[in-house]
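Predict fold of Small ribosomal subunit biogenesis GTPase RsgA; 290 aa.
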Amino acid sequence: MEGQIMKALSGFYYVYSDGKTYQCRARGNFRKRGLTPLVGDHVEFQADNLKEGYVLELLPRKNALVRPPIANVDLALLVFSAVEPDFSTNLADRFLVAIELEDVEPVICISKMDLADDARKAEIEEYKAIYEEAGYRVLLTNTELDKNAIFDVIAGKIAVIAGQSGVGKSTLLNALNPQLDIETGVISMVLGRGKHTTRHVELMTIGDGFIADTPGFSSIEMDELTTENLQFCFPEIDRRRGECKFRGCSHENEPKCAVKDAVEAGDIAAFRYKHYLQILTEVKNKKERY
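Predicted 3D structure, encoded as tokens:
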């Protein structure tokens, strides 16, 4: 039989197939072959009943994330808040780079808009326009969630939900599907961070799609990032790289750089370019150390 792994917990894989979920173990030869079944994997399995099955083979993957360990991801819903904690473009850009690196479509969701004052709302609207101009989808949500907007985004897809701790990811999931009853953490007023409450990765039904809460995904790891592929992770920079005078332009100090010209003309947001340069420097320093 063929199915898809919906949850992995304590050595068991819960495989969904034809309206039923089968509790399975992985055959021992996976470890010998250096393979690990992941939530989201399409698999071949055998099962005599719902409690005693075995995953036999992993079918080809579209992609696979390390943190969280999940495969075949179509979309990442990156959740930030307008206030408490305040929206950070630096953090948002780092999440976007990490998601672009995995060739997953990111969608930015900025929550708690109803808690922001008029000045903050205007600022968020400006950021929304900048990110949309760059090529991203941006959703602005209130504490009382417009579920249909998110349902439309993830319909027919596997999505991960990620973002800074304390922005209300678990609250958002509970609003999307009240049957989930996910424990929510209290924001620490000292650290400004929420206590993460998720313990495992699981695909949950949200409307006509699936979404996974992602423990540990408030920290970003970009081990595969290089000075060459970083520019591909900023769509507005990627679109202009062919216009630079020098092939292989890093858009840092080179003359006649189309990207720097676009920044000076206001066609690329100055904060986006600043974050590009910051990450570029970090990648270079890391390369020198190793």
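The first helix runs from residue 29 to 32.
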